[in-house]
Write a structure and sequence with these properties.
heterodimer; A: alpha/beta; Rossmann fold; Immunoglobulin-like; 4 domains; six-stranded mixed beta sheet; 12 helices; B: alpha/beta; 2 domains; 10 helices; 11 strands
Amino acid sequence: MSFLAPLYLLLAGAVAVPLFLHLRRRRIENRVDFPAVRYLERAEKDNVRQLKIRNLLLMFLRIATVLAIAVAAARPIGAFFGAGHVPTALAIVLDNSLSTSAIVNGQPLLASLRASALDAANAATGSDRVWFVTVDGSVTGGSLDAVRQAISRTDVHPARGDLATAITRATGLVVGSGLGARQVVVVTDAQATTWNAPLATGDVRLSVLAPAGTPPSNRAVVLAEARPARWTPRGAVVARAQLPDSATYRIALGEQTLARGTAREGEDLTVRAAPSGRGWRAGVVELEPDELRADDARWFAVWLGAAPRVRPDPAAGPFLRTAVDALVQDARVAPGDDVALGAADGILRLPALLLAPSDPSRLGAANRALERLGLPWRFAQPRRDQTAVRGERFDGVRASLRYPLEAQPGATGDTIATAGGAPWIVAGDGYVIIASPLDPAATDLPLNANFVPWLGDIIAQRLAGSASALLQAVPGGAVRYPAGVEGLEGSDGQVTPIAAGAPAPTRAGVYFLRRGTERVGALVVNAEPDESDLARLPIATLRDRVRARDAVVTADRAVWKRSLFDVGSRRPLQLPLILLALALLVAETVVLRRGERLGDAA
Amino acid sequence: METSRATRADLIDPAQLASLGRMEIVAKWVVDGFLQGLHRSPRKGFSVEFAEFRPYQPGDDLRYIDWKIVARADKWMVKQFEEETNMRAAIVLDVSKSMDWRGAPSRLTKLAYAEQVVAALALLLIRQKDAVGLIRYDETLRSVIPPRARNVQWRRIVSALEEGGAGNDSDMSAALVQAGKLVSRPGLVVLISDLLVDEEATLNAVKVVRAGGHGVTVLHIMDPSERDFDVSPEGVFVDPEREGLRLPATASEVQEAYRSTVDHAIAEWRSKLAALGVGYEVVFTDSPFGVPLRRAFASRQRLP
């Protein structure tokens, strides 16, 4: 038994009052002349046992009444005929990640997890506060009916989701509830790749139910990629499958099947092709169906078209020229005048890759060139310091001479890399500006192994015609859309407008980026490859990952249900104690008045 | 004083009645009311010389119903006889300290109530031409008035009632033995007491009196608070005659047992006195004076 207001237990000291009254009887000072004392004496003598019992009974009833009131005031919580529980803030976290769509015993695993979550909700009462949280970030609160309906409606999230964040959010909800009893219950498939780090809920009780037994074997496509992303028009599709044995596969691009065969564990599948079409195309790598259907296909996108024709400015240095030669040899670009590459002060038209001048004295001419080309960026005064460059594919790159880029009013575009907090590479409609000359004395970018592929991609995506971005995302995940993208075109041709910061669609597939009527890129949405690994953590290991007070981690549903609502069968005892006190008072009155009534009757 | 049924002095509250006048006056009212209730002439009694018939009234002795008239006329008639004074009676009154007590200010003390009963009874008997004497006692014999049938005897008795008493003990045995001696031939002894005395000694004395051929009637005077134990919610209860006997008690706790004990004591007195052929009546001090008077008068009527 515990008490919500233990200070009120001090009221129990009032038991001294009936005790005092009982003992005081022998110290009465009030003298009363009464001739028939002999009858009184005889009455006490004849009824001494009865009187003692009656007096003790009265004293006991009065003491018990005072104790019952004092304990009731302290708001005790305890077991009472094994029913009910203390009002609890309960958050039910349901792991509805992609892996829970696996078929187990003839039904999706999510169905049994959902049933367990419903058990928890059904055990709640109107005095509890209950929330329902899923790994896709959805939170449902309010009435119990609303929570139950939300649980029943919950479907598989097409990605891994974020179980750790869901539990953290659930913990925050119960902590903020203001109720003394708080509990987070988690129903999960115990996937090892999900429970890869410790989870803590602090003082909030945590009860985790995970299925027992071995998960079903799963075949999944974990890699599907077009290399390069821009085929001019040749290219290759690289695919990899996670297989317990072997399985038949199919690789398709648009309506065309590029390859079929049998895949084996550990093998990369590479299919080379030179399709005849032009523009963005969606491709898929498929395996034969198994217990987890969602990862039996993986999507990719590729741009088909002629190689962009580029011409590097000889004055831009040997590194740029050498890189372009390598791209020409690989047929990713062709010599020509479509795209200009060189120092900014020498560029006369767009599209172009514009480099900062190697000589600071050319700074003014370079900025005038930018102004003449209508670009909303200007080179600032040169900085000579060893500064790390931050940006995707720029790990380890440093800049020792840079002209920080300053945005002009109304500037739009993407900052691809920064140095010293200032834009270092920016891109926009038909231009890419690098804030250092491609010279080892200014930056080690041209010496980096990623330089040539990056240059090829940047020419293909930013400078060659209308083709631009190829984006990857997980279903419902965050996406950073290039400037100017207005909508997403689905596989059915429907265009959905998008706003800044909008997440990726929740259905896996390829979505083309639309600017007006033009496809300017593709968004490929696939679930995380890790989600296809259905291996479960053993219960003991899972228990080690949980850092919480009185944590219960079990595969036994009955044990888990008993752990719900703090202490199972505890409830406020205030009302029963008040009723007990009233009953004791009635009993005391009956004992007290009984003699008087009998006397009156006599 | 009017003697209609509504205002008959023997039927109204004794404390109210006693507040209306001196003892002699009140006694006369009581006796007049009592006799009116009997519908008897003070000069008519149930002696041996027939005087007349009258209709039967409740309370009449069934021995005097004329059964022949009942059989012939289907009317209940009783025979009345010319009075004849030949009975000697002694009233023994306990005037110890325990009698000088009342449980509520609205009631008479047991002693005051008993004295009024004595005065009325003596007057009634003297009007019946009986000889009446009085013995008052506490730890000693306070007054001894031999039985006489003259009218002045009643004045003498009333005067004696105004003398002191309230001693710390009750020597009832001596008083009863003395009463037996005063009533020289078989007569009536009326004991008026709260019976807070030694039971065995009292019964022995009663046996002695009964052995002398006397009829004995005991009027057990009790204050209602002595029956109900409602004098105080709690306190140290002290016997006024025996200071050493003091008991702390809470009324609500012992009331039930106390009442049971009192009932038992009354039943015991009743059965033991009945075994000796002694009439016994419990009289509460809130009862009208007619109650004890009727009881004592009935005892007298049973005697020759």
